[in-house]
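In this section we walk through a basic example: taking a raw amino acid sequence and producing a predicted 3D structure, encoded as discrete structure tokens. The instruction is simple. Fold the sequence below.
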Amino acid sequence: MDVVMYTDGGARPNPGYGGWAVILRYGEHERVLSGGERETTSNRMEIRAAIEGLRALKRPCTVDLYTDSAYLLKGGTKWLAGWQASRWEMLRADGRVERIKNADLWQPLASLLAKHEVRWHKVKAHTGDPINERVDLLARQAREAVTPVAVLPADVPHLYIRISCRGNPGPGGWGVVVVRGDEVVERGSGGSPATTNNRLELTAVIAGLRLIPQQLAVICTTSDYLYQGATKWIRGWRKRNWRKKSGEEIANGDLWTKIDMLNGRYPLRWSNVKGEELAWLEEANQLANQEAEEMLGRAT
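The resulting token sequence is shown next.
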């Protein structure tokens, strides 16, 4: 079987929080893998991506492996044989013997390479190759997914979400305040004559993201439903085609699928700020209440 594999990985800072990603294509089929680590390096993430991609293949394949990492390419095509012959050790100029750096990853990669016919290809980063750009984004998303919100750059937009529903279901409104650093840069609000608390939370996120460019953003919410759904439940829902384990369709599936799609564009980080007293939350709450009162007035 002929397989096309694109890999990428990185860490920020380096060493620091890291992510890796793989896109596998065989015929009309595609598989995407990714993951992150809190203490790693860019080189380790590049190797890890290749390992996970090859490990996913269930039988020997001919693999065209595309990478923009010179370290991974040279290691896989030039250095591995020598490292194996020296039992993963090297002699330094001062006479000391030390372990090959990242040998714990190079060893399993060498075993996997022996099972497949791998043809290596060097891709220049950020030169317009659509699959390379996509796998780069996936690796970055994986890295950002393990990066604490407090460590993210100060200019990353934070969207503060609040909702107000007069009955559940009933007329309601939502409010969003977008903050960069300590400055409010955008505000948004809207309402519905007949909705629920949970639908308003999801609607607010979708509408709020339209206020900012497609980049990393932090969603700050007081809703356990929104936070748990976005950080834990959504992966299972996606695998089950947006159904519960019982086979029933999940509630608000039409909105969750939109958020899942948006998460691939921005990407998103989620912060549960329930119980925190923040001026931006209060401002979003005021916007939501205004919309809810207007919807209630229309209903009566």
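Looking at the output, two observations stand out. The helical segments are 42-55, 70-85, 103-115, 130-146, 197-209, 224-239, 253-263, 279-299. DSSP finds eight helices and twelve strands in the chain. In the next section we compare this with other chains.
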